[in-house]
């Protein structure tokens, strides 16, 4: 029954009585052709590296002048009722209003970081700042209205002048040239500047090294001279070096700790006599005369490991370093300890000390 | 007109019911009715119960699986992170591994090892967007020859077409040449993974297929920039094992990446700093974005390694990517790498 | 008697008889076809001429020559088949054509009719003229500029049927069974047509599959229904075969009119009477079936009286077919979808495609591009994008996936140049092509009523992030806002820079608003058409006009 079957069960049959020789030969010939065609087809595979489908490196390296896009400025949220709609974005907080101008606008909301969350912003460095009396970091981003230049401003309130001096000194290295703009001292970096004024320390960093960013950085530095100070909290030591000894601002520095590599010596002010020489005055104030005497004694004892004593008195000592061939003078008077570091010769010491003691008695 | 009696029909044949048949049929009927009664009246929690009054059986259920912890104790007296900086890629890798006690401490004979490179894009190997195939080649050889691992597998779920990415990045060839088996994410590759403690991906489709019977996992991640989370390093590399709608992750990328750090606890993490993609990450594609880093990092604390690479290979100052802090909070490692690194020269 | 070499009981002769050789040939070509489909995949495409069977299809060559006026790339291979036909008649149909092999196989397997019934089934039927009519309609349409041969060309149907239905169906079955049983050997990947991807989906796969299967099923009703009644390629070769040297010749003197030669006649070409050369597939079955040795396949001693050389196409039918062809062209075209008056926003062609009117002169709907596409973005068009004319031509569906930036595979496998062969450098507009800029498939737009940051105060920048061009064609307007829960959020509201957008669609594919994406690509601005452009000038590339 045909209907019962699924598959055709009929065998292929051959009814003919003759199969010619020619047919057999052509059959062999065709088989050869077929296997040839198949082998040819499979043989078309080449060692085709899919990477070749990629664009070549040379072509990638050819720089096309890709267009600079102007990024629309950030629209900052205005609490309803605080400002009329359509007014310019919020005031930049503690920053002088002149940080924004026709060319630069704010790209991020003013952010403030305190001791608790400072590490979120600067992580590893946070400790350094906190040790130097860190209070508040105000962070502001600026972006250019014309191209993709960006500037980040970090403004650290270090509590007092010592703090800002100290952290500024930490950022200095030999090759940096300190410049002054009014009450601000700073040095330039490849894409910005680092500077301080009063209790403030600031870092200005652009996203690229360009003339435009340098100009803006300078303008920012100058504008920071208008940063508010508290009531006159300039320390006496600074006033002494700056006002009495007439040492210019860029040459004055402060070291919070590890002064002369001694962990017990803290809060020393330094003033270099001039920018060429390494000779520095130093001054430090203790709470009482007793304490200053104690510190003086310890210092002197420790200094003897490196120096040879040339003169020694109750309140005064001159030491000489054998290898560096320079002098170290240390004195004390009342709660103050002062002296000279890296002095070249005894004559210099004498003249400076005379001046120093005179001034000291005046002030 | 009277009705004709038609019975018995000529073909009629009576089938007599024997007592035995009657009994047998009776028992059958009784058993069937008892069974039916049981099925009809058994409460929901009885076996074979037909009752489901609350419809709870239709409640959608996925049975997620969990991953074992693949970590190995650190080698005694060895550092946790090793650096290799000299020689070709292979010798850098060996040096980095030697610094943490050698790979044979971590992979034992007979282990089935899964290598997770980053093959997210169809870029050629020197673009820094994907793992350097030389490292994969060398690593597979180390595993198969030195450690006598039973099987080495290489798997990733790329952003772009998997077959294309594996081919163009050279990972396919490097893996297969050295004797590893490549797993591409196809239809039956994903299952829901349960990660206890993860905030956003507690239950999420995971590239499970290559993990069958695996007992050691090694991540090999290129060091590259990432526009959204600042850097794509070792922890971010595990992103490539997730499936599902990954594009939702951008809504909270840092949380996701820190979740990844607890999702999988790898035996070893390796950072490929041979071609560092400094900007335009994670895709790259421009040779000028790539810097030769010439460093390979191997270690067992992925968080510390990432922190180190972020500062020293990508040369970023200041804040680490937020996800590293979060990963640290979740207990995946410590960002403090100081004093835990050793370099073999 | 049984020892004479000519006796069919001689084993060697029996084994090497033409019908057996024919089966070997059919298997070989079917294997080559399967291999071509299998190798049409990104990780296997290593220089194999995977579209060669299409390129040697004479109908493809002749029709594209009629529509475009030239022979593209490897289409010249068709000469081989034409020569073969001049020598041996329609041997292609029963020795090479994989679709023919499929039909014959189905008939051989399932036709359980007794010999008497088969003899009746295999008699010539006058309706077999239909295929000549179809051929004429298709060729006239082609010369007017609407290439529709692909609808019915057997090779094209085979490629398309496998690309859209058989290959994904087989992959899906392998995956499903492997998933259910947990059996997961590595060689399953070798078995799959597209290994290493998630399930490939094809829009309208059902109809394409049905179309393919329907003709296969019709063999149960009439053996080789498609080949005898519809096949335009068969018609084309049939009309050439009147010049063929060899043909079946009946020695009338020997013939006893037993009709046994009809039992397995594939072409229904009446070998028992005047053999219809244009219908004969040269399957050689009748030689085996003739108990009187009255039939020969030969070029000598041909009996002129015993052959009908011409196709059975009267002048009246010829005229009707011609008129139908002339009418069919405007009938298809009048919707304006192929021209610029009313083009569909969804008609996004793969990179390298020529402008739409030329595209329709070249595309044969073989769907090799769709088969090779590694991301599955290429889909067969349905009626909705371009009407009947563009049915099953490739379009990009970015809801499924995107066009991969550095991929030009579809242009590599296209046999007719509807998708011109391009390099990656040309696609990206690098190197020598930097003046032309990249190939643009369309332009993306933002639906601000569905975009999370625009409409819902939810931060999201996926589209901007995935945009592969540099600088990014999706830029954002950054805005702070306090959302309804009182949280401060930064909303990066995306907008498109049309000068930079290449229409790759990755933004659409990755948009979290999945079902109707908030960023979507439409065809306007595509670089293949001057008249479908969007911008007067490119702010990004002033040299490009």
Roughly what fraction of the amino acids of chain A lie in strands? 15-25%
Treating each run of at least 4 consecutive H or I residues as one helix, how many helices of chain B?
8
Model regions low in confidence, pLDDT < 50 over at least 5 residues of chain A? 83-88
Helix content of chain B: 25-40%
CATH top level of the largest domain in chain A is: Alpha Beta
Given this structure, which CATH class of the largest domain in chain B is correct? Answer: Alpha Beta
Backbone structural class of chain B? alpha/beta
**Number of β-strand runs of chain A:** 15
Helix content of chain A: 25-40%
Rg calculated over all Cα atoms of chain A: 40 Å
Most extensive protein-chain contact, per-chain counts: A-C, 56 and 68 residues
Q: Could you give the count of β-strands of chain B?
A: 11
Class computed from helices, strands and strand pairing of chain A: alpha+beta
Q: What distance lies between the first and last C-alpha atoms of chain B, to the nearest angstrom?
A: 121 Å
List keywords for this structure.
heterotrimer, B: 345 residues, alpha/beta, Rossmann fold, nine-stranded mixed sheet, two-stranded antiparallel ribbon, 8 helices, 19% strand, elongated, C: 545 residues, mainly alpha, Alpha-Beta Plaits, two-stranded parallel sheet, 40% helix
Structural notes for this entry:
The complex is a heterotrimer of chains A (363), B (345) and C (545). Chain A has 363 residues and is an alpha+beta fold. Chain A has 9 helices and 15 strands. Chain A has helices spanning 21-43, 57-61, 118-122, 126-131, 161-171, 211-223, 236-244, 289-303, 346-362; strands at 104-106, 111-113, 136-144, 150-157, 179-181, 184-189, 192-197, 200-206, 252-255, 268-272, 280-285, 307-312, 316-321, 326-333, 336-343. Chain B folds into 2 domains: 16-59, no CATH class; 81-344, Rossmann fold, CATH 3.40.50. In chain B, the strands form 2 sheets. In chain B, strands 1, 2, 3, 4, 7, 8, 9, 10 and 11 form a 9-stranded mixed sheet that branches. A two-stranded antiparallel sheet of chain B has the order 5-6. Chain C is mainly alpha-helical and 545 residues long. In chain C, strands 1-3 form a two-stranded antiparallel ribbon. A two-stranded parallel sheet of chain C has the order 2-4. A two-stranded antiparallel sheet of chain C has the order 5-6. Chains in contact: A-B, A-C, B-C. Chains A and C meet through helix 1 and helix 2 of A and helix 1, helix 2, helix 7, helix 15 and helix 21 of C.
């Amino acid at each position: 029954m045909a209907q019962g079957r699924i598959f055709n069960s009929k065998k292929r049959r051959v009814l003919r009585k003759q199969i010619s020789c020619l047919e057999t030969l052509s059959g062999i010939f065709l088989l050869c052709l077929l296997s040839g065609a198949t082998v040819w087809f499979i043989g078309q595979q080449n060692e085709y590296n899919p990477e070749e489908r990629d664009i070549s490196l040379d072509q990638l390296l050819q720089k096309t002048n890709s267009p600079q896009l102007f990024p629309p400025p950030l629209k900052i949220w205005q609490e309803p009722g605080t400002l009329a709609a359509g007014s310019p974005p919020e005031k930049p907080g503690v920053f002088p209003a002149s940080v924004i101008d026709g060319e630069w606008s704010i790209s991020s909301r003013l952010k403030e970081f305190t001791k608790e969350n400072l590490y979120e912003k600067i992580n590893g460095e946070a400790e350094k700042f906190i040790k130097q009396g860190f209070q508040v970091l105000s962070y502001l981003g600026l972006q250019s209205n014309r191209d993709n230049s960006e500037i980040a401003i970090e403004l650290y309130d270090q509590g007092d002048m010592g703090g800002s001096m100290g952290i500024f000194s930490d950022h200095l290295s030999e090759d940096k040239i300190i410049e002054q703009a009014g009450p601000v001292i700073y040095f330039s970096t490849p894409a910005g500047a680092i500077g301080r004024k009063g209790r403030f320390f600031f870092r200005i960093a652009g996203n690229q090294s360009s003339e435009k960013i340098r100009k803006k950085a300078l303008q920012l530095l100058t504008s920071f001279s208008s940063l508010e100070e508290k009531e006159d909290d300039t320390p006496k030591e600074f006033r002494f070096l700056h006002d009495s000894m007439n040492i210019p601002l860029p040459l004055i520095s402060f070291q919070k700790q590890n002064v002369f590599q001694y962990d017990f010596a803290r809060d020393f002010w330094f003033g270099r006599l001039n920018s060429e020489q390494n000779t520095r005055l130093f001054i430090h104030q203790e709470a009482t005369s007793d304490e200053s005497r104690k510190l003086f004694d310890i210092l002197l004892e420790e200094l003897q490991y490196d120096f040879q004593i040339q003169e020694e008195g109750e309140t005064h000592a001159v030491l000489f370093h054998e290898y560096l061939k320079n002098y170290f003078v240390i004195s004390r008077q009342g709660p103050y300890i002062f002296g000279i570091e890296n002095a070249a010769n005894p004559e210099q010491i004498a003249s400076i000390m005379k001046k120093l003691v005179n001034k000291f008695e005046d002030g | 007109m009277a009705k004709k009696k038609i019975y018995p029909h000529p073909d009629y044949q009576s089938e007599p019911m024997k007592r035995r048949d009657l009994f047998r049929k009776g028992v059958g009927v009784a058993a069937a009715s008892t069974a039916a009664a049981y099925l009809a009246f058994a409460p929901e929690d009885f076996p074979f119960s037909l009752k489901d009054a609350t419809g709870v059986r239709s409640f959608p259920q996925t049975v997620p699986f969990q991953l074992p912890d693949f970590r190995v104790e650190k080698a005694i007296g060895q550092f946790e992170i090793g650096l290799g900086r000299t020689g070709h890629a292979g010798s850098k890798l060996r040096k980095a591994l030697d610094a943490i006690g050698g790979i044979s401490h971590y992979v034992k004979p007979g282990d089935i090892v899964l290598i997770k490179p980053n093959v997210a894009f169809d870029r050629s190997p020197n673009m820094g967007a994907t793992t350097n195939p030389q490292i994969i080649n060398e690593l597979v050889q180390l595993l198969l020859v030195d450690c006598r691992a039973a099987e080495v597998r290489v798997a990733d779920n790329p952003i772009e077409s998997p077959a294309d990415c594996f081919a163009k990045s050279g990972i396919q060839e490097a893996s297969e040449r050295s004797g590893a088996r490549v797993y591409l994410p196809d239809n039956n590759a994903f299952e829901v993974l349960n990660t206890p403690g993860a905030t956003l991906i507690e239950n999420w489709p995971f590239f499970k297929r290559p993990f069958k019977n695996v007992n050691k996992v090694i991540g090999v991640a290129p060091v590259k920039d990432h526009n959204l989370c600042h850097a794509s390093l070792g922890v971010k590399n595990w992103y490539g094992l997730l499936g599902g709608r990954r594009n939702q992750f951008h809504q909270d990328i840092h949380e996701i990446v820190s979740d990844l750090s607890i999702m999988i606890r790898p035996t070893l993490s390796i950072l490929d700093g041979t071609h560092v993609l400094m900007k335009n990450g994670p895709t790259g594609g421009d040779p000028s974005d790539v810097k030769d880093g010439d460093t390979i990092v191997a270690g067992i604390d992925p968080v510390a390694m990432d922190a180190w690479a972020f500062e020293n290979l990508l040369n970023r100052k200041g804040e680490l990517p937020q996800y590293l802090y979060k990963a640290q909070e979740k207990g995946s490692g410590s960002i403090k790498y100081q004093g835990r690194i050793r370099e073999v020269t | 008697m049984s020892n004479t070499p000519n006796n069919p009981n001689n084993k060697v002769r029996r084994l090497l008889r033409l019908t057996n050789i024919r089966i070997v040939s059919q298997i070989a070509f079917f294997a080559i076809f399967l291999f071509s489909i299998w190798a049409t995949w990104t990780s296997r495409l290593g220089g194999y001429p995977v579209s060669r069977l299409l390129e040697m299809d004479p109908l493809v060559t002749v029709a594209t020559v009629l529509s475009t006026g030239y022979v593209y790339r490897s289409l010249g291979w068709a000469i081989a088949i034409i020569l073969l036909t001049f020598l041996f008649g329609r041997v292609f149909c029963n020795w090479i054509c994989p679709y023919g092999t499929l039909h014959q196989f189905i008939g051989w397997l399932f036709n359980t009719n007794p010999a008497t019934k088969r003899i009746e089934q295999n008699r010539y039927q006058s309706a077999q003229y239909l295929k000549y009519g179809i051929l004429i309609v298709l060729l006239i349409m082609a010369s007017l500029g609407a290439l529709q041969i692909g609808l019915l060309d057997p090779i094209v149907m085979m490629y398309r049927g496998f690309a859209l239905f058989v290959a994904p169906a087989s992959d899906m079955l392998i995956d499903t069974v492997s998933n259910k049983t947990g059996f997961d050997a590595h060689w399953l990947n070798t078995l799959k047509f597209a290994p290493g991807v998630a399930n490939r989906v094809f829009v309208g796969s059902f109809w394409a599959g049905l179309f393919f299967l329907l003709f296969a099923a019709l063999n149960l009703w009439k053996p080789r229904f498609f080949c005898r009644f519809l096949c335009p390629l068969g018609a084309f070769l049939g009309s050439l075969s009147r010049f063929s040297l060899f043909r079946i010749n009946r020695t009338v003197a020997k013939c006893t009119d037993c009709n046994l030669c009809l039992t397995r006649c594939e072409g229904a070409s009446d070998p028992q009477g005047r053999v219809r050369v244009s219908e004969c597939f040269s399957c050689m079955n009748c030689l085996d079936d003739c108990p009187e040795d009255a039939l020969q396949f030969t070029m000598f001693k041909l009996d002129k009286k015993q052959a009908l050389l011409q196709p059975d196409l009267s002048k009246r039918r010829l005229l009707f077919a011609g008129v139908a062809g002339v009418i069919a062209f405007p009938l298809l075209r009048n919707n304006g979808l192929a021209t610029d008056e009313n083009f569909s926003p969804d008609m996004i062609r793969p990179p390298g495609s020529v402008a739409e009117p030329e595209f329709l002169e070249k595309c044969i709907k073989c769907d090799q591009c769709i088969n090779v596409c590694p991301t599955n973005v290429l889909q067969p068009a349905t009626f909705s994008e371009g009407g009947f004319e563009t049915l099953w031509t490739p379009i990009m569906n970015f809801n499924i996936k995107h066009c991969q930036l550095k991929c030009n595979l579809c242009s590599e496998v296209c046999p007719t140049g509807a998708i011109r062969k391009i390099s990656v450098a040309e696609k990206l507009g690098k190197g020598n092509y930097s003046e032309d800029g990249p190939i643009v498939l369309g332009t993306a737009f933002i639906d601000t009523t569905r975009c999370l940051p625009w409409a819902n105060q939810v931060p999201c920048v996926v589209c901007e992030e995935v945009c592969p061009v540099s600088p990014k064609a999706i830029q954002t307007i950054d805005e702070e806002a306090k959302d309804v829960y009182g949280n401060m959020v930064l909303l990066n509201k995306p907008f498109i820079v049309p000068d930079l957008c290449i229409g790759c669609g990755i933004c659409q594919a990755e948009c979290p608003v999945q079902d109707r994406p908030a960023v979507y690509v439409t065809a306007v601005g595509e670089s293949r058409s001057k008249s479908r452009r969007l911008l007067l000038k490119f702010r990004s590339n002033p040299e490009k006009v």
